[in-house]
Amino acid sequence: MKIIMLGAPGAGKGTQAKRIADKWQIPHISTGDIFRANIKEGTELGKEAKKYMDQGALVPDELTVKLLLDRVAKDDCKNGYVLDGFPRTIPQAEVLDKALAELGDTVDFAVNVDVPDENIINRMSGRRACVSCGATYHITYAPTKTEGICDRCGKELILREDDKPETVQKRLEVYHKQTQPLIDYYAKKEILKTVDGTKDMEEVFQDIVAILGA
Ligand code: ADP
Ligand code: ADP
Ligand code: ZN
Fold first, then answer.
1. Helix (H/G/I), strand (E/B), else coil: 1
2. Which terminal residue of the chain has fewer beta carbons within 10 Å of its beta carbon, N or C?
3. Which atom of ligand 1 sits closest to the CA of residue 53?
4. Which residue has its alpha carbon closest to ligand 2 atom 2?
5. What is the pTM of this model?
């Protein structure tokens, strides 16, 4: 099963993608996580991506597309995957469709986690991230057992540089302009499924499970 998560920054794509990946035993592929891992390791790709990420802008398609196509060509993707944060532009979606079409394949579902802009700033300011294992928490809605420490791997959590309110505002603008058109794109392909992302995490997941057919 091949699934794409759509939604504004902070809508809960990552949170739900991880649960889907666990339940269906498929890899969770987050382009944002891959970029952050590269930044941490100090690679050329990381240095280049950081310039855009810190501004709340998108990393150029040329850099992003290659990375994603290499990742989905790996062996562990044979039975499908859940993409979180890709595609974010129409050209990215077209490249993915074309690559899959060459294999006689298609995306099965585009799950749109719908959350209005008003709720987003609050979500982001409370988000805490683990750069070591990719886990995400929220100081109110998904707290860790020990403050500031990842439940999964024991490393220290960070408040992402790009989760500060000024950058979040910019990311929302970028989302509306460049990523939201994908909702129409997948609606036309009749694979768009929208869930109400303002419900609590467990309810959102149950709605997704009902759609994907447990
Ligand atoms: P969030 O989950 O909050 O939406 P991500 O971790 O997905 O954030 O992405 C963080 C940043 O990484 C984005 O603001 C953007 O700069 C970059 N990025 C991630 N995925 C893509 C992509 N598919 N295309 C371009 N830039 C991307
Ligand atoms: P995205 O990947 O779309 O940027 P995340 O999954 O990282 O979003 O979620 C953003 C923040 O909101 C995180 O701190 C997460 O713990 C929290 N969160 C996710 N889903 C919900 C929800 N349904 N209700 C409340 N908080 C949520
Ligand atoms: Zn961790």
1. coil
2. C
3. 16
4. 14
5. 0.96
